[in-house]
Amino acid sequence: MPDDNQVFGVVTEHNGGNHVRVRCMDGRERMGRIPGRMKYRVWINEGDVVILEPWDWQDEKGTIEWRYEDQDADQLRREGHIE
After folding, report:
1. CATH number assigned to the domain comprising residue 19
2. Domain S1-like, which positions (predicted)?
3. CB 26 within 8 A of CB 66
4. pTM score of the predicted model
């Protein structure tokens, strides 16, 4: 589950490299950056549910912290955490 400064999001577009467009559950659309520790280990595709931590200094961008597997994402949808 996300911390206080993190939000659920759904990846809407892969912009190449390590950048994705994420529709966050707080109603904002942000540019997400995939950190190096995840870049080659976790493949992030359109439609994936992620946890995004918005940047303090630039709220329209953030860092991807976690990607949920399909089963976990379905459970979050059933529980009403994401749309």
Report:
1. 2.40.50.140
2. 1-69
3. no
4. 0.85
